[in-house]
């Protein structure tokens, strides 16, 4: 057993104590615990309400006993330790952790781990960012300017009743982080000099919460598009429903560099058309969503190696992020409108950059 971190234990114990205290407070008031419903999601900053006066001697004693038990466990721990790595593997792992000349990244596909020389990693990152049709070097960090623009957009929405003050506080971060650029090595293409798949991590960035807000309204509409596929079971069900004919042919598409070739106007046009034709939202909210989408896509910047870059085309997003909705599904999902399939065939989009059609 590893040595107990008493500070982390203190934090965890007090978080649990806080939950118990809040539950006690609302039970005394006769308020039942609310069941979370994603369809009624409220976008607001997490509450810091803590009724400290409700702790009482029982909860205080419980917290002290828990902390004392962990300390006793530390004192009486068994000295013999069981490892799932051999001694040699442990030594190699420790050396890798301390060697700054190496960069360790997950492989783009296959679930492997790739160890690269930092020199190669930085060279490949610069090669990707040298594409002046996609990236532009900035002289300074534009966070404050973009933050002011976002604030004006949100204030206008509050004034005309589209969002609430609580929504504003959620959508307008006080201390946003700069989005970070990195890449995943494509070892399935070249094992010695793998090209990089660019990713931008936007966690806690200026537009992170705005993307969640927009995604909440776009998801139901996206699921109604003809090309939408939920998962593998869904695609199998769709295929089974087809009355196959001998002159039908299957085809699959894999879009090369999808994230970096979608122009902002194309992505915005695809979303706006669908929003106008399929959404049941009131006109003012649709107008706000369009403005927010345009702001997000046209004010993308990132940082790497102490340099800021402006993104001229739709950004590559971290897997699983809400921004995926704004960058990939919509342009692919509009292929039946843009005339890729003029003869009445079917097309489905699956994954983030692949399509199947017949």
UniProtKB/TrEMBL annotation:
Name the record gives this protein: Reverse transcriptase domain-containing protein
Organism, scientific name: Leptobrachium leishanense (Leishan spiny toad)
């Amino acid at each position: 057993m590893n040595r107990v971190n008493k500070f982390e234990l203190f934090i965890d114990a007090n978080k649990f104590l806080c939950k118990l205290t809040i539950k006690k407070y609302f039970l005394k008031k006769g308020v039942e615990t609310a069941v979370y419903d994603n369809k009624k999601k409220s976008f607001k900053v997490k509450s810091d309400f803590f009724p400290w006066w409700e702790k009482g001697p029982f909860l205080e004693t419980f917290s002290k006993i828990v902390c004392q038990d962990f300390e006793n466990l530390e004192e009486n721990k068994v000295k013999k330790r069981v490892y799932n790595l051999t001694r040699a593997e442990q030594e190699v792992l420790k050396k890798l952790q301390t060697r700054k000349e190496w960069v360790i990244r997950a492989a783009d596909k296959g679930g492997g781990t790739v160890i690269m020389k930092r020199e190669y990693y930085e060279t490949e990152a610069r090669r990707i960012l040298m594409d002046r049709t996609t990236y532009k070097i900035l002289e300074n960090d534009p966070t404050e300017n973009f933050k002011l623009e976002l604030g004006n957009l949100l204030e206008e929405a509050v004034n005309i009743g589209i969002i609430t003050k609580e929504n504003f506080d959620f959508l307008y971060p006080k201390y946003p982080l700069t989005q970070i650029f990195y890449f995943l090595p494509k070892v399935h293409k070249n094992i010695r000099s793998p090209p990089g798949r660019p990713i931008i991590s936007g966690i806690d960035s200026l537009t992170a919460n705005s993307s969640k807000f927009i995604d909440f309204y776009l998801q139901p509409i996206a699921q109604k598009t003809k090309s939408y596929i939920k998962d593998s079971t869904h695609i199998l069900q769709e295929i089974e429903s087809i009355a196959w004919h001998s002159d039908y042919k299957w085809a699959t598409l894999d879009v090369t560099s999808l994230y970096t070739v979608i122009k902002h106007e194309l992505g915005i046009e695809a979303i706006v058309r669908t929003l106008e034709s399929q959404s049941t939202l009131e006109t003012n909210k649709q107008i706000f969503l369009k403005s927010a989408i345009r702001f997000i896509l046209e004010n993308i910047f990132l940082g790497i190696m102490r340099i800021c870059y402006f993104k001229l085309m739709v950004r590559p997003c971290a897997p699983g992020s809400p921004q995926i909705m704004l960058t990939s599904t919509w342009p692919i999902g509009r292929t039946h409108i843009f005339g890729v399939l003029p003869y009445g065939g079917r097309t489905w989009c699956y994954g983030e950059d692949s399509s199947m059609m017949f």
